[in-house]
């Protein structure tokens, strides 16, 4: 039994480990640390891989701080499957290519990378604090943050998060994340390097459209747009009409002329097909548009097909059944 095992057996609540040179056959932290039910706060600083159990190991950890470690894919799985009480994660000078944080309890996330992080995925309730610095090598980011309020705090936290990944090429956002970004008169997040945007929503309703427009104002180089909707998730059927071609034209969105490929899954109301029609009539460099429609929306095919295209783009229609 190592001295770390002994600490775990003594119902330790706060453990600080600064291991400058892990030696004497130790290949990482002993499993007893990850099984310690009393542990609430863990700080680890060591110049090697932070190995975690490959099997579910429930704990009551609330605060985790890692410095000068290398993270593997198992880290993300461990956080989501075993750390159900985690509130704060600090990653300082860590090495990682992909990080996925899926947690409904997480409140604060700080990330200071010492290597080139390529992919980042965060899902759960909107964080009360997030400090990511500038992730200049980020290529892909997925943010699925739940926000049910219209607070200034939610706006600033989400805006700061997007500014941290301003060099991202591929961006996938949930509707709640986008709506948290929108406030009347708010400035667009500077996402000038983003070339692919995917929006996942239940429905392209009237509350989402202005928020989506505000987001896309900062995407002057967007060339691929995908809107994935699932009307089966809509129970109250919010209003989803009124944003026609005249509205979209009045927004003067720079990215429209850069669009080359668009995929839209039509939702309830007419907002989605009106957007498709507008793009066809104004996107000069568009190469292809793919539209998925409900069996009850076949009449939309004619409306979109009759658009006065300004490009030679092909239009593919696919019927899709949502369950």
Task: Write a brief caption for the model.
This protein is of the alpha/beta class and 323 residues long. The protein is built from nine helices and 15 strands.
Tag the structure with descriptive keywords.
323 residues, alpha/beta, 6-stranded parallel sheet
What report would you give on this structure?
The chain is α/β, with parallel strands linked by helices. The chain contains nine helices and 15 strands. The chain has helices at 3-9, 31-35, 73-82, 152-164, 175-181, 208-216, 245-250, 271-282, 299-305, and strands spanning 14-19, 41-46, 63-67, 88-94, 98-102, 108-113, 119-125, 129-131, 140-146, 170-174, 196-201, 224-229, 261-265, 288-293, 314-319. Strands 5-7-9-10-11-12-13-14-15 form a nine-stranded parallel β-sheet. It has a six-stranded parallel β-sheet with strand order 1-2-3-4-6-8. α6 links the parallel β11 and β12.
Annotate the secondary structure layout:
Elements: H1 3-9, E1 14-19, H2 31-35, E2 41-46, E3 63-67, H3 73-82, E4 88-94, E5 98-102, E6 108-113, E7 119-125, E8 129-131, E9 140-146, H4 152-164, E10 170-174, H5 175-181, E11 196-201, H6 208-216, E12 224-229, H7 245-250, E13 261-265, H8 271-282, E14 288-293, H9 299-305, E15 314-319
Helix pairs in contact: 5-6, 8-9
Mean pLDDT: 85
The ordered H/E elements are: HEHEEHEEEEEEHEHEHEHEHEHE
Distance between the termini: 54 Å
SS strand fraction: 25-35%
Shape: elongated
Determine the oligomeric state from the structure: single chain
Number of strands: 15
Strand order of the largest sheet: 5-7-9-10-11-12-13-14-15
* Count of discrete alpha- or pi-helical segments spanning 4 or more residues: 9
Q: Which residues form runs of ≥5 with pLDDT under 50?
A: none
């Amino acid at each position: 039994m190592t001295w770390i095992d002994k600490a775990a057996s003594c119902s330790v609540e706060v453990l600080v480990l600064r291991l400058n040179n892990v030696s004497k056959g130790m290949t990482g932290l002993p499993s007893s640390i990850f099984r310690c039910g009393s542990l609430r706060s863990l700080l680890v600083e060591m110049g090697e891989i932070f190995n975690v159990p490959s099997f579910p190991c429930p704990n009551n950890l609330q605060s985790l701080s890692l410095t000068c470690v290398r993270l593997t894919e198992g880290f993300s799985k461990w956080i989501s499957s075993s750390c159900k009480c985690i509130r704060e994660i600090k990653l300082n000078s860590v090495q990682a290519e992909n990080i996925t944080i899926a947690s409904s309890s997480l409140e604060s996330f700080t990330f200071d990378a010492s290597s080139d992080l390529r992919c980042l995925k965060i899902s759960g309730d909107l964080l009360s604090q997030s400090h990511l610095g500038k992730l200049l090598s980020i290529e892909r980011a997925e943010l699925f943050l739940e926000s049910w309020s219209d607070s200034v705090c939610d706006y600033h936290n989400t805006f700061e998060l997007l500014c941290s990944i301003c060099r991202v090429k591929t961006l996938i956002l949930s509707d709640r994340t986008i709506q948290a970004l929108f406030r009347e008169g708010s400035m667009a997040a500077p996402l000038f390097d983003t070339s692919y945007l995917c929006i996942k929503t239940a429905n392209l309703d009237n509350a989402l459209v202005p928020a989506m427009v505000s987001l896309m104002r900062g995407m002057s180089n967007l060339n691929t747009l995908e809107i994935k909707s699932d009307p089966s998730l809509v129970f109250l059927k919010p209003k989803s009409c009124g944003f026609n071609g005249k509205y979209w034209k009045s927004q003067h969105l720079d990215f429209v002329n850069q669009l080359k490929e668009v995929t839209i899954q039509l939702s309830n109301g007419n907002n989605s097909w009106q957007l498709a029609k507008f793009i066809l009539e104004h996107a000069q460099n568009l190469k292809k548009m793919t539209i998925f429609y409900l069996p009850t929306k076949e009449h939309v095919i004619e409306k979109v097909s009759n658009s006065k295209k300004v490009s030679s783009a092909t239009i593919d229609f696919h019927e899709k059944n949502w369950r």
